[in-house]
Design goal:
Elements: H1 2-24, H2 35-62
Length: 63
């Protein structure tokens, strides 16, 4: 139970940090508004999750 609570607290802290970075640092970045950049921003998290899951599947398959 303590392990789950620790995980939730870490996740909450990471989420708050990411939110603050987006709010205060994000506007200072000059990223042009193009269709390509929008696709990259939308699809990049999905690709990262897919790679992580495939990597985990391969590691589990070897054991």
């Amino acid at each position: 139970m303590g392990n789950q609570l620790g995980f939730v607290l870490k996740l909450l802290l990471l989420s708050a940090l990411l939110s603050l970075l987006i709010k205060y640092v994000g506007p200072s970045l000059s990223i042009p508004t193009t269709g390509t950049n929008a696709l990259i921003i939308v699809l990049l998290p999905i690709v990262i999750i897919a790679i992580a899951l495939l990597w985990r599947f391969q590691a589990q398959k070897q054991n």
